[in-house]
Amino acid sequence: MSAGNNRGIALIITLTAITIIIAVALELNRQMRKSVMSAATTKNQMSLSHMVHSGVEIGKAILSQDKTDSPNVSVQDDWADPEIIQHYLAQLPFETGDIRLEITDERSRMQLNALVAFPDGRDFDPQQLQLWQHFFALMFAGAQQESANFVFDGGNITPDMIINPVKDWLDSGDDDAITGLTGAEEDHYRMLDPPYGCRNGPFKHVLELMRVKNISREMFYSFDIDNYVTVYGMTPAGEDGHRFTYDGKININTAEMPVIAALLPEGYEFLAEEIVAYREEKADGEYLYDLTPPNWYKSVPGAEEINIDPNLITTESDHFRIVCSAEQDGIIVQATVIVQREKDEDTGRWYCRPLSWSYQDI
Predict the structure, then answer these.
(1) Which residue, of 119, 213, 256, 309, has the greatest Cβ tally within 10 A?
(2) What is the pLDDT of residue 155?
(3) pLDDT of 146 above 50
């Protein structure tokens, strides 16, 4: 073999070795960067988790103190004041990152499970049925005003197309009798792909609504249903401790405008905006109006002769939604916590017991 050929083979071997070394070096570098980034992400996740938990604890503390001060719950309370909440958050010992905290009253929402009269759990609650019909009629009318071609799943939709299947999902002991022409019981859901059962009992979570006939994901999020409906508010019914009911009362001191409008008599929905503004009116930094009696709304100009069914409203609440998010280095973690205020029998102090936690990376 000639010397020239030997030098050529040696050069090829050398180049191949260099290529392999470079490839290995690049892979090691990639893995090291990945490990460093993973470690940094893990550190950030741990830090964000601590921040979120701290924010939730502050929310619980504010709510507990608020109950100590007054049984009345309104948008005038400390828990509803963003400036006061921010003042408390500023005391947290986190040098970097940002924490946001929002507290809302679950009683400001319509009780989904109150649509059926528990503990029997078979028939509509008449007052709740009227409330729900009014609510969805207003929601659909508003959507039609925004878009003349408003349809869902290719067709027009009416309140009964939502309310009847919700009732069938809730009711029990009715031998799977379908409500109206638009209801749906077990047979309907078993024919779906994939099939699933009808609960025939109280909803466990608002998101469960998207399993009900005619309630698509598009509808649920388009109308922001989670913001106006709750599954919480169960109370004992009877002395045996095994039966329960949902009174369906809405806190008129905290309910948002669409819910207030649904509570008002038909034709007077325009007063909802005035009622909401009345609750928050201030002078020299002080709230002007007392929201203690449930019928305070009659003091709103134009509402003197209006009557809201007293079985539908209250001014008290012990169920709240705490939403806390923390951000650091572009990573955001959010927790939604439902709490119930309870009184410690030994100390007499109020505290917040978590009923549910859910986390979300944003």
Answers:
(1) 213
(2) 62
(3) yes
Phi, psi of 283 (to 5 degrees): -145, 125
Domain 108-312 class in CATH: mainly alpha
The two three-digit tokens of residue 126, written as one number: 């008449």
Query: What percentage of the chain has pLDDT greater than the value 70?
Result: 86
Residue range 41-58: mean pLDDT, rounded: 83
Q: Are the C-beta atoms of 291 and 277 separated by less than 8 Å?
A: no
Whole-angstrom Cα distance, residue 65 to residue 70?
9
CA 78 to CA 158: how far, in whole Å?
40
Listed in sequence order, the residues at least 6 apart from 60 whose beta carbon sits closer than 8 Å to its beta carbon are 322, 339, 351, 352
Q: 224: how many CB neighbours lie within 10 A of its CB? A: 12
Whether the predicted pLDDT of 27 surpasses 70? no
- The pLDDT, as a whole number, for residue 122 is 87
And the tokens for 99? Answer: 């924490």
CA distance 278 to 280: 5
Domain residue ranges of the chain, discontinuous segments joined by +: 3-107+318-361, 108-312
Residues 6 or more apart whose Cβ sits within 8 Å of residue 307: 265
Q: For the chain, what's the residue count?
A: 362
Looking at per-residue pLDDT, the higher value among 232 and 17 belongs to 232
Q: Is the pLDDT of residue 39 over 50?
A: no
Give the E-state strand segments of 156-238 in sequence order: 229-230, 234-236
Q: Which helix (H) or strand (E) holds 48?
A: helix 3-69
Residue 81: what are its φ and ψ, rounded to 5°? -100, 110
> Cα angle at 196 between 190 and 201, to 5 degrees?
105
> Does 3-107+318-361 carry CATH code 3.40.50.300?
no
**Confidence (pLDDT) at 40:** 47
When pLDDT is cut at 50, 70 and 90, the band that residue 172 belongs to is confident
CA nearest neighbour of 236 among 250, 220, 247: 247
Same fold flag, 3-107+318-361 and 108-312: no
pLDDT digits (tens, 9 = 90+) for 317-360: 999 999 999 998 888 999 999 999 999 999 999 999 999 999 88
End-to-end CA distance of the chain: 67
For residue 230, report the phi and psi dihedrals to the nearest 5 degrees.
Answer: -135, 155
